[in-house]
Specification:
Layout (H helix, E strand, L loop, with lengths): L8 H32 L19 H18 L15 H46 L10
Helix pairs in contact: 1-3, 2-3
Protein name: Aromatic ring-opening dioxygenase LigA
Organism: Actinoplanes sichuanensis
Keywords: Dioxygenase, Membrane, Oxidoreductase, Transmembrane, Transmembrane helix
Length: 148
């Protein structure tokens, strides 16, 4: 009877499985934390948004939609100029600055949602790799070639 393969592969598979589980848990917790933190801000997507109008912002697509609307409104207020392009004495400069900060914050949350989802996705891949490594290690070793 052929003996099974030994060595570092089963241990490596277990470590990769554990890392995958940690990544999934971390990704899900991070996603939920971002969502609840964003939700606590009580932001609603503007009625003139192209998508998700009137919805409570607690997901990346809603944050993105509201950030786009904020950019449009700021552009309207500033006649298409950015904060940096407005003169220091322009009365709209502070409003456009605040809009720029809000837009950047919403886009940052979109990126954070993506990183959390990426971590969870990589965790799933790690689990699949860990299972494959452990199954490979459990296979019987090939029979030794006869010696002459």
């Amino acid at each position: 009877m052929a003996e099974s393969r030994r060595g570092p592969v089963p241990l490596l598979g277990l470590l990769v499985l554990i890392a995958g589980a940690i990544l999934i848990v971390a990704g899900v917790i991070t996603y939920m934390t971002i969502s609840s933190t964003l939700s606590a801000q009580q932001i609603t997507v503007s009625e003139d948004a192209g998508a998700f109008a009137g919805q409570h912002v607690d997901q990346p697509w809603e944050a993105y939609a509201e950030a786009k609307v904020i950019a449009e409104h700021a552009g309207d207020i500033a006649d298409g100029k950015t904060y940096a392009q407005l003169s220091r004495d322009d009365p709209n400069r502070e409003t456009v600055m605040n809009a720029s900060f809000l837009q950047a914050s919403l886009f940052t949350s979109v990126v954070a949602f993506g990183v959390a989802a990426l971590a969870a996705g990589i965790g799933i891949a790690f689990i699949l790799i860990g299972v494959a490594l452990r199954r490979t290690a459990a296979l019987p070793a090939p029979a030794a070639a006869p010696t002459a």
